[in-house]
Design a protein that fits this description.
By secondary structure, the chain is mostly helical. It has one domain. The protein has seven helices and five strands. The strands form two sheets. Strands 4-3-5 form a three-stranded antiparallel sheet, with no helix packed on it. Helix 1 packs across helix 4. It binds zinc ion.
Length: 232
């Protein structure tokens, strides 16, 4: 069991794997494995994923994989979603190793490490690396041509940018009623209840991750969308 998954997270990941296998076959599973193995290798410390987090990261990819049973062109959306999930995870985990203080992507204001919307150069490079690796693997195993892989990589990067932008602007922030700390969850780390302080209270970190992979899916499928629109 990967040390970074809780038992319920493992069950969610297994459901995700089953959906991907049913929809995208061994190629889909191989790409999912690249994402999980690299994310697992990069993640250190107690950051255990909950089922909600696994689904937020993989739900769009699973849906696209299942749609690929009906139309194989959805495989590009599947790969784009996974590239975005990889970009998000890699930028977070690689960025955590940066000695530079993160700055808010929108204003450049220094923020504490781990703040949504906070970016470092190292983390950004990590995100680009994660997206590029997923795209290259998709091409290597025959899931995409090289030009399509370029769009998958672009989708991963775009998803990562969307994640940072949403995290810095619209994502909900909550103030703890007990200790006063402002965080990103409706329940504070101290165990106290937290009330909405800023942003959209329904736009949680998981929802932002889901939006990030949706952007990756749409940009990854750009060759199909542009062709359908008669633009390419
Ligand atoms: Zn608290």
């Amino acid at each position: 069991m990967p040390p970074w998954l809780s038992p319920a997270g493992v069950a969610a990941a297994a459901a995700l794997g089953a959906a991907v296998a049913a929809g995208a076959g061994w190629r889909g599973l191989a790409l999912l494995a690249v994402f999980f193995v690299t994310a697992s290798a990069l993640t250190r410390g107690g950051g255990r994923r909950t089922p909600a987090q696994v689904l937020a990261n993989g739900g769009v990819a699973a849906a696209a994989a299942l749609l690929a049973r009906l139309d194989a062109r959805f495989l590009l959306a599947f790969a784009g979603a996974l590239a975005a999930a990889a970009a998000d995870t890699w930028s977070t985990e690689v960025g955590a190793r940066s000695s530079a203080q993160p700055r808010l992507v929108t204003t450049g204001r220094p923020v504490p490490p781990g703040t949504s919307g906070g970016v470092t150069w190292l983390g950004t490079l990590g995100g680009v690396g994660g997206a590029a690796l997923l795209a290259l693997c998709a091409s290597f195993i025959g899931l995409a041509t090289l030009p399509e892989a370029a769009w998958i990589a672009a989708g991963g990067v775009a998803g990562g940018v969307a994640d940072s932008l949403l995290g810095a602007t619209l994502q909900g922030r909550f103030r703890c009623a007990r200790c006063g700390v402002v965080g990103e969850a409706a329940r504070c780390a101290c165990g106290g209840p937290a009330a909405p302080a800023s942003g959209l209270s329904w736009l949680t970190n998981g929802a932002v991750n889901g939006a990030c992979t949706l952007v990756g899916a749409v940009v990854g499928a750009a060759p199909v969308i542009l062709r359908a629109a008669g633009l390419a």
